[in-house]
Amino acid sequence: MPSNEDGYMLRRDHTESQRLDAQHQFFRTLSGGHLVHPSIPWKLFSNVADVAAGTGIWLRQLAQSTETSDTVRSFVGFDISAQQYPSKDECQKDGIELLTHDMTKPFPQEYHQKFELVNVRFVSYVMKATELDNVVGNIVQLLRPGGYLQWQECDAGDSWTTPETTLARSTINYTIEEKIARGLLPGIATPLIRTIQSLQTEIPRGQHNPNSFSSDQMRLKQIETVSTATHPDPIVAAGKKMGVISAATVLLESSIQRKRSKAAQDSTPSSEKEQLERDVQAMSNLMEAIKCGEDDAVNNWDFEMTWIVARKAIPLSTSEPWMAIKYPQA
């Protein structure tokens, strides 16, 4: 199956770039047409970043929708691979800059505390469970005090069919099993929210954190779940099908190969080999159902997207008038 050293499970080619752009249009439609959550005053911002930028389509569309003004704006995208980036001429035309960077590593110092908005989407299929804390910490470093973090994710467990079927349950179970086998989080929403909330910051002497009485670095502003079940738009219907086919297929292919490899090992007990062979057959049948477009396999699905908005603390001087109320001894 397609796989890259950086953990991306699909091919990095023109077809995959087209799929990513179509996926973007699907999720934008699901988000009510918004590129940025309505609670974020992004049109006032001068510096915006997109992490795990893919083809750069989110950043390009945001730059294109920005009204002309005297303010010099910076739109910067980061991705572990530049293979799906548009040409430099196209980037220059759109007014964006796309750079190569691994989000599991600290970003260059020049980008620390630079951005008023950082966008992240759908990294749960490439980010290891053990990398979550580092990734969130690295991304938050990009934010200026008072800056906004927007993060969207979909978990396999937040999907279902109507009516529920054995085929659907098998798809979800095999998908989650393979994510765990690859070291990925079976569900990212709750661990992600906890990680964002747990970030701490050092407040300089003579200042206090208006976010809370402690040293919380981030304040959660919005946690919203958006369901495909309430969106009859044809783009959403097509996007659901595309999402099921791409996610389930790649994880099933990976699981089939992994189980076949283990079954072929001499050290694997015969009883375990028999179970592995049964699993392979069941997953192969499921793959065939997906490829044939059976309703239970691809057409009756719905799922939820988690949309998170958080804001970075702005340490304030204790001389602020309201500080006397919050910190009477300061």
UniProtKB/TrEMBL annotation:
Pfam families reported for this sequence: Methyltransf_25
Residue ranges annotated for the Methyltransferase domain, each copy included: 48-147
Name this protein carries in UniProt: Methyltransferase domain-containing protein
TM spans (from-to): none
InterPro entries, sorted: Methyltransf_25 (IPR041698), SAM-dependent_MTases_sf (IPR029063)
Upper lineage: Eukaryota, Fungi, Dikarya, Ascomycota, Pezizomycotina
